[in-house]
Specification:
Blueprint (H helix, E strand, L loop, with lengths): L9 E3 L3 H14 L9 E6 L4 H17 L4 E6 H5 L1 H5 L4 E5 L1 H4 L10 H5 L3 E3 L23 E4 L1 E2 L10 H5 L3 E2 L2 H13 L4 E5 L16 H11 L5 E4 L9 H9 L6 E7 L3 H7 L5 H14 L4 E8 L6 H14 L1 E8 L16 H26 L3 E6 L4 E3 L5 E4 L11 E10 L2 E6 L2
Helix pairs in contact: 8-9, 9-10, 10-12, 13-14
Protein name: tRNA (N(6)-L-threonylcarbamoyladenosine(37)-C(2))-methylthiotransferase
Cofactor: [4Fe-4S] cluster
Keywords: 4Fe-4S, Iron, Iron-sulfur, Metal-binding, S-adenosyl-L-methionine, Transferase
């Protein structure tokens, strides 16, 4: 007798916003009546062609391993090209980004409907004025939770297709953000991450146009039982002074800031239609680093953007050291259909690949240096699965698994004893 592998209910690609929305999908799936056809959802990402390739590969694997399941494809890639995903063998339904959050979208489909061919339900994100009013109670297999504070983006970077998939900026009201945070903390989470597509745009369309710093301050005051708060990627062009003050010194705001930098050359930044320059990134890192020495910076970087010369690339490479960027998300440039950058003169693939590897190596060296400086120090952290964790500065940590009784999600105090395979090795001391 053969046994199939355990069936996941949702497979998530891409950003933390997708991870948050996958929990909403799980809640909807859990309400299916007994006897409903089992479903597997693939929540896709459209940032790069590689992300889409991995999603297609996953769909093929799921069809092979779970032939009894209805495969539903959603997320940004599905929003942008629903017919292409519906054509994949085994796909029964395609849902757009607005549709995947609505309970009505998850009413069980009949076998007859599935047999008739895949259905497509994709709404225009531009027409969705508000976010789905759904509280998430927890996150499967995660020690930290995500709180979505906004959706969409009003900017038009030349390389990015996400505004087409997510629509314009819409902000979650302060009261709703606080309610979601309280629910997650009450469920046992000690660490939350504020997330969105363009985090620093929060509040722009709300009455009085409050800034992100005001939201963070209100959340910290209203939920004193939350010990640790993080923010996902921030636009260097749009940090307000109140937010800078909180990042520089509030003990419950973790000392880790990730910037959406993309490049370290001003001409390339202009061609990307970014709103900051390299000097602004250095200024922010110097200011925050002087105020809070333990802070560690990260950045998104695109390697091999069209028209990037060796000298332009050298400026991006130099920025890693000049700004002290340690946590790097490096993306080899990937042309996205319909974007202005896709019409620009592209670099040879081997050049793009080599530049991405060089940036990753530089980031790894910087991260290693930061970890070396932490040896012998102590820290409090949230234990994750399999003995993994992140310190307050988001440095990767491996905890001594010989210690019994350690439960994922628990706050523990450790001492950093060594570095091995890119992680701090920690001894539990409390």
């Amino acid at each position: 007798m053969t046994h199939s592998k355990p069936r996941p209910d949702v497979v998530t690609f891409g950003c933390r916003t997708n991870a948050f929305e996958s929990e909403i999908i799980r809640d909807h799936l859990a309400k299916a009546p007994p006897g409903s056809r089992p479903r597997v959802v693939v929540n896709t990402c459209a940032v790069t062609a590689e992300a889409e390739r991995q999603a297609r590969q996953t769909i093929r694997r799921l069809r092979r391993e779970h032939p009894e399941a209805e495969i539903v494809v959603t997320g940004c890639a599905a929003q942008l090209a629903p017919e292409r995903w519906a054509e994949l063998p085994g796909v029964a339904r395609v849902l757009g980004n607005p549709d995947k959050l609505q309970a009505d979208s998850w009413d069980p489909t009949t076998e007859a409907a599935a047999a008739a061919g895949p259905s497509i339900q994709v709404s225009d994100p531009e027409a969705v004025a508000a976010l789905a009013p759904h509280l998430v109670a927890g996150f499967e297999d995660r020690a930290r939770g995500f709180v979505q504070i906004q959706q969409g983006c009003d900017h038009r970077c030349t390389f990015c297709v996400i505004p087409l998939a997510r629509g314009p900026n819409r902000s979650v009201a302060v009261e709703r953000v606080i309610e979601q945070a309280r629910a997650l903390v009450a469920g046992g989470l000690h660490e939350l991450v504020l997330t969105g597509v363009d985090l620093t745009s929060w509040g722009g369309e709300l009455p009085g146009a409050p800034r992100l710093g005001a939201l963070v301050a209100a959340l910290l005051e209203a939920v004193p039982e939350l010990p640790r708060l993080r923010l996902s990627s921030l636009d260097p062009a749009a940090l307000d002074e109140q937010l800078l003050d909180l990042l520089a010194g509030h003990p419950r705001v973790m000392p880790h800031v990730h910037f959406s930098v993309q490049a370290g050359d001003d001409m390339i930044l202009k061609r990307m239609k970014r709103r900051h320059d390299r000097a602004r990134v250095i200024e922010l890192c110097e200011h925050l680093g002087a105020a809070r020495p333990e802070i560690v910076f990260g950045a998104d970087l695109i390697a091999g953007f069209p028209t990037e010369t060796e000298a332009m690339f050298a400026n991006t490479r130099a920025l890693i050291d000049q700004a002290g960027l340690a946590h790097l998300h490096v993306f080899p440039y990937s042309p996205r259909p319909g974007t202005p950058a896709a019409r620009m003169r592209r670099l040879p693939g081997e050049v793009v690949k080599a530049r991405a590897a060089e940036l990753r190596a530089a980031g790894a060296a910087r991260l290693e240096a930061v970890m070396q400086a932490r040896l012998g120090q102590t820290a409090e952290l949230v234990l994750e699965a399999d003995g993994q964790a992140r310190d307050p500065s988001f440095l990767p940590v491996r905890v001594d698994r010989a210690v019994s009784g350690l439960v994922p999600g628990r706050l523990i105090r450790v001492r950093f004893a060594a570095i091995d395979n890119g992680s701090l090795q920690a001894e539990v001391i409390g």
